[in-house]
Amino acid sequence: MLKLLKYLKGYRKYALITPLMILLEAVCELLMPKYMSSIIDDGINAAGGGNMNVILVTGGKMILLCVGAVICGIIVGKASSIAVQGFGYNLRKAMFGKISELSFADIDRFSSASLITRITNDVNVIQQMVNMGLRMLVRAPAMLIFAIVICFGINVRLTVILVVAVPVLAISVATLMNICRKLFDTMQKKIDGLNQSVQENLIAIRVVKAFVREKHEKEKFRRANDDLTNAAINVVTKIVLMMPIMMTVLHVAMVCSLWFGGKYVLEGSFLTGELYSFISYISTVLISIMMLSMILLNVARARACADRINEVLETIPDITDTETEPENGYPGATGAVAFENVSFKYAKTGTGDDVLNNISFSVAPGSFVAIVGGTGVGKSSLVNLIPRFYDVTGGSVKVDGLDVRSYGLDELRSRIGMVLQNNVLFSGTVRENMLWGKEDASDEEIAQALKNAMIYDTIMSFPEGLDTMLDQGGVNLSGGQKQRLCIARAMLRKPAILILDDSTSAVDSATEAEIRKSFQENLDGTTVIIIAQRISSVRYADSIIVLEDDHIAGMGTHDELLSSCDVYKEIYDSQQEGVSE
Predict the structure, then answer these.
(1) Which strands, in side-by-side order, build the sheet including 356-363?
(2) Residue 470 pLDDT
(3) Phi and psi torsions of 419, nearest 5°
(4) How far apart are CA 131 and CA 18, in angstroms?
């Protein structure tokens, strides 16, 4: 947890003010029993029927101490709130920045649901712990130490009670902390599971309803919810043992103090006021220990959360950005792509087998290349290596003659426009989504890109036009509309390489043909790499690459592959059979 304290940067003065004010507040409170003892012994019980002057003067001092404690408390409340909220801000910012740097493989390993839990729930737990640390973790030890010292000054014999009580509480707390730490870690993982269940259900709610799987999803959520509830109950049933133990020790200590202290008062070796103040201080000692105990139990949970947060912050991304530009600078953006003996596997999340094995081919600048093959043969994995979403495990991928690992990520990806298999649109206007392609694009440029993707008339038919609000994920658009809008966004960039990962599957054949024609007319010089299932989408490509399992089964034009590649011919025949039927 100490590693995370650096995120107090910018708020350290508030973090320092808080414990200082708490110490002053503690001093004000600790002096109260002393003054009360003086009122009892030197005022009320004074010879001659009491001393009103002592009562008034001492009472005035107590009022001033109360006012001082209140002022300190107000300062503590404000300073600690600023420090804690600033700490949370810095920590969330650092985590989001790190998550943004993670590679696809790293995100796959953590899972998006777990990352959401860590940046929200886990950070909140740490914030609460820092708040307690700045306040109670300073206050409780200060009150404890000062009160013990004062108790020794009042009566050494009675203070022996503390010598017995304190170790009993300390051992109880240490035992429970050791038990609860692992239980808290399990509970945080159960929160991950619950978040994942909710996230999947909300993202795929249309599929759930289409397949009438609400009962199944409710049952899945119930199991995840039960797991979290049981984990929480398991922790709570251990924690609740603390309070009975503490209260038993506290009450036994109080009874012993009253028993022996009363005897000393009757013997005349101890004054009534001193007994009152001793009881107050011994209560302060034991309550401080109780506070420390609860803090330390919270530390157990916070430590589990801190471990999970540090795991993210200390992750070295698989894909690291190069800091130095090649000596001769980056080559010109022509759109040339070359795979040289490329092998690839998902080392962290897969089975460990190669998804691609010894893949070699080259794509000339400005050409139209298609990739086809059965489901799961590695088509998407192959194109994801070009913008370096993943790194090859063997061989090299080159763009414009330079290994992609030698590029800065911004430089490499600025040359590439990509429409992913899952069309992603963000909540906001159509214009805001289009500006992802080019930040400073004018409305005229946006309109032209929409026309090139055959979606302009549809967008302008909406009452708000480019200012039409899109819901999260673009759920208020059809599948084909989303695909064409994503294509328009990529075309607006005018990239050297345009990659379309099965991005016209929801578009009718006539519109697809128009889009393909638009590529030729409006992306002159751009290398287009398309993954498609329909032969009609790829038959006019300059070159078609056929993948089977983890290797290239054939490469050539449509006519060449029909005569030389059995895999391609099977795909073609199956689709032609469907058409004829």
Answers:
(1) 356-363, 337-344, 394-399, 402-403
(2) 85
(3) -115, 110
(4) 10
The pLDDT of residue 31 is 83
**Measured distance CA(547)–CA(373) in Å, rounded:** 5
Condensed to tens digits (0 to 9), the pLDDT of residues 354-384 reads 889 999 999 999 999 999 988 888 888 899 9
C-alpha to C-alpha distance for 105 and 319, rounded to whole angstroms: 9
**Nearest-angstrom CA–CA distance, 430 and 417:** 18
Among 68, 92, 117, 72, smallest CA distance to 7 is for 92
> With b meaning 16 or more CB within 10 Å and e meaning fewer, what string describes 334-356?
bbbbbbbebebbbeeeeeeebbb
Report the alpha-carbon distance of residue 411 to residue 436 in Å, rounded: 16
Can you state the angle between helices 242-267 and 156-203, rounded to 10 degrees?
Answer: 160
- pTM for the predicted model, two decimal places: 0.70
Query: Which residues in the chain show pLDDT less than 50?
Result: 581
Tell me, what's the pLDDT at 446?
A: 92
CB neighbours of 345 closer than 8 A, spacing ≥ 6? 352, 353, 354, 355, 356, 393
Residue 309 · residue 118 · CB < 8 Å: yes
Q: Contact 369/541 with Cβ under 8 angstroms? A: yes
Q: What six digits make up the tokens of 348?
A: 């962290």
Backbone angles phi, psi at 42, to 5 degrees: -95, -15
For 133-168, give one letter per residue: b (16+ CB within 10 A) or e.
Answer: bbbbbbbbbbbbebbbebbeebbeebbebbeebbeb
Cα 447 to Cα 231, 257, 407, 419, 538, distances in angstroms: 55, 85, 32, 19, 27
Give the number of residues written for the chain: 581
Q: Could you report the per-residue pLDDT of 193-241, keeping only the tens digit for each?
A: 888 888 777 767 767 777 778 888 888 888 888 988 888 888 778 777 7
Distance, in Å, from the CA atom of 177 to the CA atom of 534, rounded to the nearest integer, reads: 61
Give DSSP secondary structure letters for 55-124.
HHHHHHHHHHHHHHHHHHHHHHHHHHHHHHHHHHHHHHHHHHHHHHH--HHHHHHH-HHHHHHIIIIIHH
The Cα–Cα gap between 90 and 92 comes to 6
| Beta pairing, strands 551-556 & 543-548 | antiparallel
Q: Find the helix packing angle between 123-154 and 52-101, rounded to 10°.
A: 150
